Amino acid sequence: MGWATDYKKAADLERQQMTESAVTADLEMVCQKYEPVIGLETHVELSTNSKMFCGCPAHFGGEANSHVCPVCLGLPGSLPVANRAAIEATIRIGLAMNCQIASRARFARKNYFYPDMPKDFQISQYDEPLCTGGYLDIWVGEGANRDRFRVGITRVHLEEDTGKLTHGGETGRIHGASYSLVDYNRAGVPLVEIVTDPIVGAGERAPEVARGYVAEVRELMRALDVSDVRMEEGSLRCDVNVSLAPRGSSVWGQRTETKNVNSLRSVARAVRAEMTRQAAVLDSGGVIVQETRHFHEDTGETTGGRIKEEAEDYRYFPEPDLAVVAPDPAWVNELKANSPELPSAKLERLGAEWGFEYEQMREIANAEAVELVRETIELGVAPTDSRKWWMGELARRANESETDLLALGVSAKDVATVATAINNGELSDALGRQVFEGVIAGEGSADQVIKSRGLALVSDSGALQRVVDEAIAANADVAEKVKQGKVSAVGVIVGAVMKATQGKADAAAVRKLVMNSLGVSD
Amino acid sequence: MSQVNSEQFDLAHLAKLARIDFSQEELDTLRPQLLAILEYVARIGEVATPDVEPMSHVFKLENVVRSDEVTPGLSPEDALSGAPEQRAGRFAVPRILGEEE
Amino acid sequence: MSNQQLLTASAAEIADLVTTGKVTAAEVVTAHLAHIDQVDGAVRAFLDVDAEGALRAARNVDSKRESGEKLGSLAGVPVALKDVVAQKGRPTTCGSRILENWHPPYDATVVTKLQDADAVIVGKTNMDEFAMGSSTENSAFGPTHNPWDLTRVPGGSSGGSAAAVASNEATVAIGSDTGGSVRQPAALTGIVGVKPTYGTVSRYGLVAFASSLDQIGPFARNVKDAALLHSVIAGHDPRDGTSAPDSKKDLIAAANNSDLRSVRFGVVREMRGEGFAPAVLDEFDRVQELLKSLGADVQDISLPHASYGTPAYYLIAPSEASSNLARFDAMRYGLRVSPNPDATVEEVMSATREAGFGSEVKRRIVIGTFALSTGYYDAFYAQAQKVRTLIARDYHDAFSAVDVIISPTSPTTAFKLGERVNDPLAMYAADLATLPVSLAGLPAMSLPIGLSQEDGLPIGMQLVAPAFKDELLYSAAAPVEAALEKQWGGPLITKRPPILSGSR
Question: Is some CB atom of chain B closer than 8 A to the CB atom of A4?
Answer without folding.
Answer: no
